[in-house]
Design a protein that fits this description.
The chain is an alpha+beta fold. The chain has ten helices and 16 strands.
């Protein structure tokens, strides 16, 4: 007998994953009018869940989506979703949560029979390996960051500190990076002033003289993983931290560089537009940060992800949150 199917929390009820659908008249589809968070677990324990939820509620407040429940109720719903889906997971799976909140139906469609107006709360729970199964080799070989012509949208136009679904600029940057010759190309966006901003779903940091340097938090999503590196891991290891504007010149003259994001935590960036950063390989500080993170959560992060790769992940070539593969 096979494992039960996964279910999705949908406004207080659980529905089969295949039946979880937003109406074509929802503001999320019309305007990308949805805020969201995505989390992960380590050994089945959610990491920084409260911080993710606090950012979600800040995003709702900023875009004026009425909070459909308290943050405590949302947290309980998250754990109910995990409990409901645990029987469908393999023993070595980690829980990757996707929490979406949409404004709901546009007013002119609220009278359609069978559709319920008001905000939607949608919580999905699926295996983390889906997101990271193709990344295992990057812990050793590293990423080649590509600066595309697509620019980051500055906070004066659409504040990237609000985690929202209006992300076509991310996808276009991924398309451009994916159509650049070479392999393991990930987009690295500049802001309109020419300063380094962020990746398409990850934060970017450099290391110079054992000081961790991050773009200032103005035109970027202030990632939970970025905050963990800057506010907890760096002090734990006695490393200095600086937040300031940095340019491509600063990247190419840095000792090392890395990306941070919830699913993979830390990945080394070894080159910028095919020019080596430092020695052109994962750096000492990057490796130390990742190792310490793993010790703190009781998981060998790189080895876990690499083990999923060894099982043989397949890909259709469709775009991912981080990369767009060139079509043959």
């Amino acid at each position: 007998m096979g494992k039960p199917g996964r279910v999705v929390y949908w406004n207080g009820e659980f529905v089969p994953e295949s039946e979880a659908r937003v109406s074509i008249y929802d503001s999320a589809l019309m305007f990308g009018d949805m805020v969201f968070e995505m989390t992960r677990s380590f050994n089945g324990v959610q990491f920084k869940l409260r911080e993710h939820l606090e950012r979600l509620y800040a995003s709702m407040k900023y875009v004026r989506i009425p909070a459909p429940m308290t943050i405590e109720e949302m947290e309980r719903a998250v754990y109910q979703t995990i409990e409901a889906n645990s029987p469908a997971f393999e023993t070595d799976d980690e829980h990757r949560l996707m929490i979406d909140v949409s404004r709901g139906l546009l007013s002119i469609y609220e009278g359609i029979e069978g559709l319920t107006p008001g905000p939607n709360v949608i919580i999905a729970d699926f295996p983390l390996r889906w997101t990271v199964a193709s990344m295992g080799h990057l812990f050793e070989s590293g990423i080649n960051a590509i600066i595309p012509s697509q620019r980051a949208i500055p906070a004066t136009l659409l504040d990237p500190k609000i985690k929202n679904r209006s992300r076509v600029h991310y996808l276009m940057a991924n398309v451009q990076a994916g159509n650049t010759s070479g392999k393991d190309n990930w987009a690295l966006l500049l802001d309109p002033d020419g300063f380094i901003a962020e990746g398409t779903g990850d934060n970017f940091l450099i290391v110079k003289d054992r000081t961790i340097i991050s773009p200032e938090g103005r035109n970027i999503l202030r990632g939970i993983s970025r905050e963990y590196v800057l506010r907890e891991l760096a002090p734990q290891l006695g490393l200095d931290v600086v937040e300031k504007n940095i340019e491509p010149y600063d990247v190419l003259t840095a000792d090392e560089a890395f990306m941070t994001a919830t699913p993979f935590c830390i990945l080394p960036v070894v080159s910028l537009d095919a020019e080596p950063i430092g020695e052109g390989k994962p750096g000492e500080v990057t490796s130390l940060l990742l190792e310490t993170w793993g010790e703190n959560v009781g998981v060998d992060i790189a080895r876990q992800i690499q083990s999923w790769v060894a099982e043989g992940a397949s890909s259709t070539g469709a775009p991912s949150p981080y990369a767009f593969k060139r079509q043959s």
